[in-house]
Each structure stands twice: as structure tokens, then as C-alpha cells.
Amino acid sequence: MSTGDSFVPKDALEPKLNPSPHDRINLARTKLQKAIDFLPGMRPGEYLNTEDQQQRYQNNGCKPEIFNYRPGYGKTHYKWWSEVLLAVQTEPKDGDVENKEFGLFVDFHGGGFTTGDIRHGGWRQKHKVQFISENNIVCVCPNYPLMPWFTGLEITDAIRMFWHYIFSEDFQNHVQALHAGLKVRLENIVVSGDSAGAWLAMYSFLYGSMFDLAKPLNISVVYLQYPMFRHYNRSKPDDGWAFYETKFTEDDIKEHGEKLRAAWLEWRHALADEKINEIPFNVDIKRPWAPLGMGASFLGSTHDNLWKEMFQNNDTKVKDIVERLEDIQKLPTGAEQTKYKKPANIPDFYIYHGNADKNCLIEDTQMAVDKIKQIFKVGDQEPHVHFKKLKNIVHGFDHNYDASTDFIKDIHEKIQAKLAVKKDGS
Hints:
By secondary structure, this protein is of the alpha/beta class. The chain has a domain at 49-234 and 321-419: Alpha/Beta hydrolase fold, catalytic domain (Rossmann fold, 3-Layer(aba) Sandwich). Helix content is 35%, strand content 15%. It contains 14 helices and eleven strands. Helix 2 packs antiparallel against helix 9. Pfam families: Abhydrolase_3. This is Alpha/beta hydrolase fold-3 domain-containing protein. Residues 1-22 are annotated as: Disordered. The active site is at residue 195. Keywords: Hydrolase.
């Protein structure tokens, strides 16, 4: 066992997947897993997995706990994608949390919609963990279904179910398990996410009023890092394609990409077999602990619009964030009563993105920002958007950045002021 392996849960390092009662499903699952993790030797424990990273919450003053919630998918039983991590200050600043209400910070992980796990400490940005530990805030980080096992529609369905969980008695009980007497204020919510997680944060803001929740989804801050607002389609770097320190030619990518496409189609056809008629939520799937799963985002985003194909699964109504903003922008006056219900309130937006990002282009973020300002303008007043453009910065750069980093500190202070959050617990 390597040093990194010692921080990986056994069900991620040595998964024991229950067989499906359908041989065709089992065979398709095996083929698709092989096509995703096509590089030999890839295993959990080799990526963002030092002791400091794996103990990130504990070492930065937070108490994390993992809970399970049950989305509404009929006969579905417990799966990794229905886990949530709740984190709070190890020792709340005011000592006694009885009759106190903490703010809510929801953070969606990135990973191209193909990888990432809430128990992977190094996958969380250090500065966000520090923000939680310095304020009276409960942070909730959900796992969610991932491609190519699931489609974009299945992912967004799960996000709706997650928000129903937030407004449920189960969530309140889980909060109490962190600290007896602890309560969470289900308004003035912060939603955050990096890369693909930013897609889900924006989706929550755009459509939360249509989730049929117990009370309106009141989001005060949308905090995004290098967001993925388009169907994932990478720009080729000047030095060519590379994945996991391995160089790839166009022919290499085509070969592996077509194998992934064939395996994915076989998986979807197996699920849809009229003699089977299964949903992926009922099938055991390997926990996507990075680097596992990363091969699907690499091949999908570099070969023949494959990522978009797997995300949409032949349903062109499943659109990216910019496309959704364009559709909202085109609605005639009054159409929102039947086709789109605007959010309960318009939050402040805090975004940073590097201009050297080849994975998710800063130009796409600027396009989304421009549309947000136009769509959610009230009279002459545009929404507050703080968009920090970083020079010569690439994608996913900030996992180990400290909250004292100048541009991050500036954003955190603005969020604190917006929420009237004080470090002394008042």
C-alpha cells in the first residue's frame, strides 16, 4: 500500500460491486469502466492525496461528517452519489450553539461531471475550508451522479433531489449530529462550485424556484471558480494533448475516444433493453475517486464532441448554461409565468477565472456574465457581479491556495459583508 493509499477509503481503493441480475448490464459496466480508465496503473491515492490534503478539514479547524440522503428514485438503495459531507467549525466561536442559527454554504465539487468525491480531502479548495472555519457557517458538499454512467438530465434531477433534502427533516437531524442544538438558516444561502461544480451552482440559482421546494430557495451569493458554462470542449494546448503526464496524438485520442463512445452506447442500450428496462441509479458503479473517471472528461472534451453527446444522450433540450441563459433571454414578456419562474431574489455574484485556462474558456464566463446582467436587471439596476480575471492562470489552480491570498481574501471579505457574517459569532 502506498502512502497515498492509506487515505483512501477501502470502498474506493478495492471496490466490491454487487452484480446486476442482468448479464448484459454487468458486461456493459465492465467494458465502460475499462474505456474510462484507459491508462494502465491509474488508481486512487495518486492525485491530490498527501496527508495534509486528506486531513484538510481537520487541519484547518473544521469538523466534517459524511451522511447519506435518499433521492426519490424508487427502489434505489444507498450509493456513493447520494452522500453529503457536512462541515462546521470544530469549536464554534460562541461556544454554545443552542438557539443560534448558522448560515448555509453549499459547495458543488468539480471534475468535468466525470470524477470527484466529497471524501477526497485534496479535492476541496483549502481557502473554502478556511472560510467555513472562520465563520458561523455550515458547509454542505454533495456527491452527485457522474458521466458517462449518467446523463445530464439524470445529474440535474439529482440536484433537484439534493435541494429537497436540504429542506427536509433528515438534513436538520444531520446538522444536529454535528453539534447538538445547532440550527441552519435556510435563507441568504451561498452556493459555490469550481469548474463543473460552478455549472451546478448556476443551475441551482437559475431553476431553484422551479424545484417545488417546501419554501423558496433564497440564494444571496453565487461564488464560482473557473466555471464550466459550456459543453466541455477543450482548446488544444500549444504543446499538444497530454493526460496524466502522457502525450497523445490526434490518432491516439480518436482511438480511445471511439472505444469510449462504443462502450457508452452499449451501456445505454443495455439499460434500455426492453427485457431489462433498468435505470443507472440501481446499478453499483465504482466510486469515482480521482484520478478514476478523469479519462472520460479528457476523451469526451477532446474527441468529436463526445462529452456533449454523452451529456445530452440524444436530447438536445439538455443545454449548457450559456444556452439556457440565451433561452431565458428570448422569452417574451410574461412567458416566465408558464415557461420559466425567476429566482426568489437576485444574489451577488463572485467569480474568478484565469485567462490561460484551456479547459473552460474565460470568454464563455464573460458571455454568461453579460447575459446575467441583462436578464436579471431590475429597472436600471444590474446584479452585482465581481468578476476577477487572472493573468496567465490555468484551470484548477487553487486547490492549495490559502484564504489569505489577496484576491481570495478580497472576495471572502465581500461575501462576509453581504451576509453580515462576523467571526465572533454575533
